Amino acid sequence: MPMNLFTRKKEASGSSPAVMKKRPFVPAERPKLSNDPLVRAMQARRFGAILKGRAKWVDHPDFKKTYDAAQDLLDAYFAMTPEGYVSIVMSIFDEPGAPERDVETEPFLLARYAVTNADYQYFVDDDGYDNLELWPEDIWPHLIDFKDITEEPGPRLWEKGRHHRDLADHPVVGVCYYEAAAYAKWAGYRLPTEAEWQMAATWRIRSSAHVNRRYPWGDALDSKFCNIWAAGLGGAMPVNACPGGAAPNGVLQLIGNTWEWTDSDFEAVDRDGRPVMGDTLLKVIRGGAFDTYFPWQAVSNFRSGMGAVARRHNVGFRCAIDIPES
Amino acid sequence: MAKNLINNPKRAACLICETPNPPDAVLCTECSAPMALVYEARAQEHEPQMVSILGDSNVGKTVYLGFLLDMLSQRANDFEAVPRGAYSVDLQQTVVSHMAYRMFPPKTPMELDEWKWTYYQVCKRGGGAKWIDLLMPDMAGEAIAAEVASPSTFRIIQNLLHKSSGLLLLVDAALAANGSSQPDFFALKMMSYIDTLFVCKRGAKIGMPIAVVLTKADYCPECFDDPARFAEANLNRLWNLCETRFSRVGFFAASVVGSLAYATAGGDDVVTPVPLHTALRGVLEPFEWLVDQV
Fold this sequence. Notes:
The complex is a heterodimer.
Chain A: H1 37-43, H2 47-52, H3 54-57, H4 63-77, E1 78-81, E2 84-89, E3 100-105, E4 108-111, H5 117-125, H6 177-187, H7 194-202, E5 259-265, E6 276-277, E7 282-286, E8 303-307, E9 315-316, E10 320-322
Parallel strand pairs in A: 5-9
Antiparallel strand pairs in A: 1-4, 2-3, 4-10, 5-7, 7-8
Chain B: H1 2-7, E1 12-13, E2 20-21, H2 36-44, E3 49-55, H3 61-73, E4 79-83, H4 87-100, E5 116-124, E6 132-138, H5 141-149, H6 155-163, E7 164-172, H7 173-177, H8 182-197, E8 210-215, H9 222-225, H10 227-234, H11 236-245, E9 249-253, E10 255-263, E11 272-281, H12 284-293
Parallel strand pairs in B: 3-6, 3-7, 7-8, 8-9
Antiparallel strand pairs in B: 1-2, 4-5, 5-6, 10-11
């Protein structure tokens, strides 16, 4: 449906903004999971964990079949991002002459979609918050703060450890950097670095064409291709919305819907060269969100920082993984 | 009365303080309000409704008002807004151009002739849309504080409040959530000042609609979950006075800055706050409520 160019509405038909509308909470049902850990890992889409845990499961009677299936599904859920190079603006003012850092990136796999509430539910149900191996030791004292609004372990906006039934395919939000990283580790993945994220969005592959896309789909903003404030939806959309905004490899919603945590620390200077820091450690977030007001703050090379323990309603994440050895 | 104020070609009376001014005056000789307001009101053939934005220094009045106007002029939430006069656009332009470059706009100076005034015609489309003329000045927090502490120091504020159809009272939720009693005390003083300004019969409550906007709410996300509950818990003095003396008070949470950082060098005393990105939340809702009320 074409967007009404002259009126910004809270909600457009066919979308289901997560934030704007206060809806009565309907908890998602508990998924029926197998008792078999390998099957359960498949059900929870922990394909990375299966591929990396070969030694652990090699004696399982269905290992070969499951392993092959995990490899196929990894191909379906992740997309190859070729090697390339990016220039990361190190000043908070992106203007000619601003200091830049050039980074070469290796080929890697990036999730086509952001992690959804349904995906994250598996992690919560698998007692991910109690599994200390997934968390850096210095964060253990903070784990008690990573609660939902009913004081159960889980994203900040969940209730009783469950996501809203209608938001299963929406990006999980209200998680801090450490929760995002713990999920990725549990599932056998990792968070992308900001250079990898920027490479996927700018598609600056090594070629004589010197492509450096402002948006994953090209150089012009189109509010049908991304969910930022100008789109007028007022909330997040399902992770598979806006197919026109895909990067050349099919990765969706790098721009808009929710900011995405990266694995990189935020380092920047102001015009006078003074370092820009937060009250606490800042991690780089990328891509902008449904409430990003200035369109130029939701472009491929725009970087912002967020306190690593902040659990915002507009910050989610997607996973990455090194290309598995064949 | 209104017709007399705006239709006398020889003695243009200021819209705010009603002081007669020479016809060529640019600013009111008494209160420094722009006389363009009078000429605009004259063109519209009626006095505009006034909405005052109050709050302590650094609470975010300028940024809030600037973005509110910018959202309205971009037709957010079915609103339509037309600036009446180029001077009305100055504030939003200043705010937007600074925030876009990750800087906060300069502090509003105490000097009356430096204040930015905005005169907008606003309409909510659908359901018998009706245009309302709104006059919203951006006042300096220090001036408001001085007036509250010693009434008549800034008479223009008193006059404005007398003429206002509704108020937006901005309170720093981040400070309140951090345990500071300053926001609560300032808001209490402000409401007490308003209470004495609109003398009512004993026991009668003041009916002017007041939207209490908890700003910087991104620092305390629970504020968005239930602003009234947050106010009751963290701004209890204000909450009690509102309940006792005012009949139409709404509590709202708002934030503009998506993430805040600071630029500083080692041994440097100057710490500059840097809004890393802008993410508007809850800016329009209090205004929408207020427009419905007035």
